[in-house]
Each structure stands twice: as C-alpha cells, then as structure tokens.
Design brief:
Layout: H1 7-25, H2 34-44, E1 56-59, E2 64-67, H3 69-104, H4 106-110, H5 114-135
Length: 146
C-alpha cells in the first residue's frame, strides 16, 4: 500500500508521530512500548525525502531516527497545554467523585444509573471548576486524617 502525502501533510504526520509516541511512552521507564517508538522512528526516516531533515536526527549507533530538538520545541506548547488541561480536569473530576461518594456512600454511587451519576457528579464538578478557575490552587489545602 502506498500513501501519497504533500510536504505539509507529512509534516503534520511527523508531528503526530512525535506527540503520539510521547503520549504513550513519555512517563514509562521499564515498560516502554517499543512498537510505538519503532513506528515513530520509521516515520521520522522519511523526513529528509520531504525536505524536513532538520526535524529529525539519526543515531548511527542505534541505527534509528529520533526527533530533533527543533521538532520537540515546536510541539512543546501543545504538550504543555494538554498537561495543563489534563491536570485541572482530572483534579476537578476526582474531587467531584470523592464528594459524591462522601455524600451518598460508595454503594449508592455504585448502584446509580449513569444519568443520575453524571447529574449528581456534575454539581460537584461545576463547583470545583468555578473555584479552580477563580483561585487556582490558592484555597486548596490537604489535611492528614488520622
């Protein structure tokens, strides 16, 4: 199978290969998923043919292609935006779920229909989202319960 891409399309594919591999493997240490790394390296190998050699590096000892600092830097903003959104969204969601369980009990929450669960959780979600948007972490405090 052949896939025909313009230079602009390939450049976006290069970006997606980097960001996708980053999402899958950036936080891994011992359980790195090599199949994604290998596929990204394969995609990177076509960069010179598209006039994008500056976006990749070739490591002769490893015999594989890697993203260059230029490619990484050009996509850092997208990754930072995602991490920021993910942090706040998960924080608010987990606080909302915690309070839902505190109010109704774990068994009751487990037995709620999806629609009821979503509606009740949304009340807490909206409360925390509004607080975080207004004050960030300024009013968040952790207490050790003993």
């Amino acid at each position: 199978m052949d896939i025909k891409l313009t230079k602009e399309q390939f450049e976006k594919l290069l970006d997606l290969a980097y960001v996708g591999n980053w999402l899958v493997n950036s936080y891994r240490a011992d359980d790195f998923i090599e199949a994604y790394n290998d596929l990204a390296s394969h995609i990177y190998s076509y960069a010179p043919a598209f006039g994008l050699k500056d976006k990749i590096s070739f490591d002769e000892m490893e015999g594989r292609y890697f993203p260059s600092a230029r490619l990484e830097e050009s996509l850092a903003g997208y990754i930072e935006d995602y991490e920021d959104w993910s942090f706040w969204d998960h924080l608010v969601l987990r606080l909302a779920e915690r309070d839902l369980v505190r109010e109704y009990g774990e068994a009751a929450v487990d037995n709620m229909e999806d629609e009821e669960f979503e509606a009740k959780r949304q009340v807490y979600f909206d409360k925390y989202k509004k607080e975080i948007e207004k004050n960030g972490l300024d009013n968040l405090e952790l207490y050790k319960i003993s």
